[in-house]
Amino acid sequence: MRLCPFVFFCALCLIGPRLALAHEFWIAPWKYQAESTDSLAADFRNGEGFVGSELAYFDTQLQRADIMIGTSVTPYKGRLGDIPAMTFQPPQDGLLTVGVVTQPAQVKYKSWEKFVAFATHQDFRGLLDRHLSRGLPQVDFWESYTRYSKSLIAVGHGRGQDTDRGMETEFIALANPYRDDLNGTLPVRLLYQGMPRVDVQVEVFAKSAEGTVTTRMIRTDDQGIVTVPVQAGQEYLLNAVIVRPAPDDARPVWDTLWATLTFALPGD
């Protein structure tokens, strides 16, 4: 859908605050299982607890957007202001990955309490001490954040495996949620700069067909793997965050990198 100028302006006014205030950013396909001839659509969503607002497509806010299936990678180019953010024809049958990396954006912490709440929720052990030991202010300081999001869709026969798509941080499903016998769990590896992230928190959201969302925290093992409990007919969002010092010459004092993965299990 193409936005008229007035709606486009309103979208700009609304999207900025939401990006700054809400936590997760994820890709929400309209269908997780599709026929070969189907036209596919996916929303960009930003929110908390697997509930969020639709965001329009703005190429200036993206570093990359790709449609990937097997070894085929097709860069995605949408129209400014499109909602849903992505619409496309699948290039072939198989396990399709939609991948998006946003441009860095910035948010200001106006209170110490909000930073404490963020560090506590994400289980960033020692972050508050690191902040204070660097002599950083406790109010009115900036953070830079970048999103690395993937979504898995089964097209036609849906065969195939997820793989490393070259993002600075990303989840990789180690089994196919649409084809493999999972026996109640899906193993997923978390990477940062191509290496497993060991003993870090992953937030797992599960949404039932009725829209009820449950949340659990799981830690990666010594191979960077989390074993995610899964049930038929549910949609899943995995979220993990990295925090690192920003460059000395930058306005932000911290960089955060947010990895998300969405998928769904077929119903019984």
UniProtKB/TrEMBL annotation:
Pfam families: DUF4198
Source organism per UniProt: Aliisedimentitalea scapharcae
InterPro entries per the UniProt record, alphabetical: DUF4198
Keywords: Signal
Name of the protein: DUF4198 domain-containing protein
Segment forming the signal sequence: 1-22
